[in-house]
Specification:
Blueprint: H1 18-28, H2 32-44, E1 55-59, H3 65-73, E2 78-83, H4 86-95, E3 103-107, H5 114-119, E4 123-129, H6 138-151, E5 152-162, H7 170-179, E6 183-191, E7 194-200
Parallel strand pairs: 1-2, 1-4, 2-3, 4-5
Antiparallel strand pairs: 5-7, 6-7
Helix pairs in contact: 2-3
Amino acid sequence: MASAADRIPVDHHDWHSPDYVEEWIARDVTRDAERRLRLREMLAAAPAAKNDPLAVLDVGGGYGVVTEEVLDMFPRAVVTLQDYSQPMLDRARARLAGAAGRVRYVLGDLRDPAWVAAVGGPFDLAVSAIAIHNLRDSDQIAACYRGIASVLKPGGAFLDYDLFELIGGLAIQMRVIERAGFTDVACLWRQERVAIIRALRPAGAG
């Protein structure tokens, strides 16, 4: 029998429409102040020093807000920003023009296993914010977590800020992340429907 998460309607966003993306970003930036505070708290939990030369994957990075915070917090980091929407990537490229040598952009659908090879790696850190829940389907979400684990270096970390209550709840998603190949899965912050999770790829992973 299908779970409640399986029965959630498919994503209603038109991410391939430049006009829709422009309107969505105009609404989204109104939440910048609070969201950036949470992103900084999330990134502060990365097992890395400020000047480490990190390779970072931003999953569903949209118009570059998370990548921007990564670049500010870790001045020697290089980020691969993956997203499903070309209009979003175009906006990210414009937003992050001053960091052109530190950001690589990858168009890819998290529902297609080919995204894993497209982003490359391995990465020291994977981050995501308000993105993976858009997959809706529980099997696709689990596959996405496995893909993230597969491109992380042993000992690498995954930091995820998301609407977990829309995809079965925080406890369920933490178990799914653990089964995807992570250890030390912990909730760092939670408020109503949203939470921040940190998970580690085992140091001995092959």
